[in-house]
Amino acid sequence: MLDTALLKEFQQPFLLSTDMIKHIAVQFRKAMYDGLCGKTSPLKMLPSFLAAPTGQEKGAYMALDFGGTNIRALLVELYGNGHYAVIRQRHTPLKTSSYDYTADSVSAEELFDFIASEIGQIAPAVTLSLGHTFSFPSYQTDINNAKLITWTKELKTTGVENANITQLLSEALIRRGLAHIRPAAVINDTAGTLLTAAYSNPAADIGSICGTGHNTAYLEPWYHSTPMIINMESGNFDKLPLTIFDAKLDTNSEKPGQQLLEKSVSGRYLGELLRLIINAMIKNGLLPAIEAKRLNIPDAVTTKDLSLLMADSVIDLTTVLTLYERTSLQQIAALLQKRSAQLTAATFYGILCHIDPKLERRHHIAIDGSLYEKMPGYAQTIQATLTDLCGKSMTSLSTGLIKNGSGIGAAIAAAMAKK
Ligand code: GLC
């Protein structure tokens, strides 16, 4: 028989009240301010050397989207005012059962040779500028030079941290006989998402990824007195009410103490959080010792499993667990998902209060990523939380999915670099 009091003890630390969410937003806004002023802050506030596009960006460009799970090479034609066509594209995983370009046994040259050969599969034989979306915290000195500060999302490839990403890519392209493909811009995927949305919608001023990783960029109206898209690296925000499970996940991770917001909200980690909770529930007699062997393996539970569980589509479970046990598991999975969307919404509210304290202007938040696109209820929870926080001003605020913004955004950035 299910011990409901004990189950509640598991659930309680994941519940966020409106006051707690508001408090997180206030802390987030302060961290933005500190980061912009050069004070110590969990937010890196990295300038992209790009403002909003005019909508007049046109022409053919190569784009490379490197996010840590796949490599996507694209040939894109931009027509202006939000219109574009993907002429060719190629999608390849960075890790399969026969190779793993994310491992520390792989060198930067090996990784970038692999990337260049993927570009070579679709690149035409004419000279083209290339926009590169590199979705990791990178320090930029201009639109086309970025140094990786630190790997996130558990990547470990050797020799990339502290290296100039554009130089690594350019050298690999030359080694592969692709000197006619010329890197012209490097951006973060959040900036790419924002650029793609702003290409057709001038109200778009926040771009976010809610997928394997989590991060947000926004258009700072006054960065050294000019508008500038800032990659906040908000996944590293750490003023959060975390649970013992978050702490355990962090201790076992590649970089303990870093990316605490990302570790509590993103797809790379939600399944692992669920695995840690299930194991504790088993220990406390709330669940039978199902699949004990598998559940001892880190990362054995994925965010996809979490979605299946919530939809009651894990066939095995319906035979091994009672309805009560399944419901209790589903409640935990739903709480993890809800907390993720609420924390994300809190950061959005923090940004809105920073750029427009009285919420007087129109704003559009463009979001990409598997959680936002595919997890049932996720987008709705973000919207509902923002409505709760913004009250009446919500009418001038919209949120929406922008698909493949990181790849298209790279092409837009390459076009902007030309000017
Ligand atoms: C990680 C990266 C960040 C990226 C995000 C989404 O948080 O550090 O740069 O934007 O993942 O891919």
Low-confidence stretches: none
The residue-averaged pLDDT reads: 94
Distance between the termini: 68 Å
For the secondary structure, the number of strands is 13
Strand fraction equals 15-25%
Structural class: alpha/beta
Small molecules bound in the structure, each named once: alpha-D-glucopyranose
* Outline: globular
CATH architecture classification name of the largest domain? 3-Layer(aba) Sandwich
Gyration radius, in Å: 22 Å
CATH class of the largest domain: Alpha Beta
CATH topology of the largest domain: Hexokinase, domain 1
Number of domains: 2
- SSE sequence, one letter per element: HHEEEEHEEEHEHEEEHHHHHHHEHHEH
Portion of residues within helices: 40-55%
Strand order across the biggest sheet?
A: 1-11-10-9-12-13
- Main β-sheet: number of strands, strand sense, barrel status? 6 strands, mixed
Structural summary, described in words:
The strands form three sheets. A six-stranded mixed β-sheet has the order 1-11-10-9-12-13, sandwiched between helices. The chain folds into two domains: 4-42 and 206-401, Hexokinase, domain 1, CATH 3.40.367.20; 58-187, Nucleotidyltransferase, domain 5 (2-Layer Sandwich). The longest helix is centred in the C-terminal third of the chain and has 33 residues, at 323-355. Helix 2 packs across helix 12. By secondary structure, the chain is of the alpha/beta class. It has 15 helices and 13 strands. The protein has helices spanning 4-11, 18-36, 108-122, 165-175, 189-200, 244-252, 260-265, 267-283, 292-295, 303-310, 315-320, 323-355, 370-374, 378-390, 405-418, and strands at residues 46-47, 59-66, 70-80, 83-93, 128-134, 138-142, 145-148, 181-187, 204-210, 214-223, 226-231, 363-368, 397-401. The N and C termini lie far apart (68 Å). The protein binds alpha-D-glucopyranose. The site of alpha-D-glucopyranose has 16 residues, from helix 5 and strand 10.
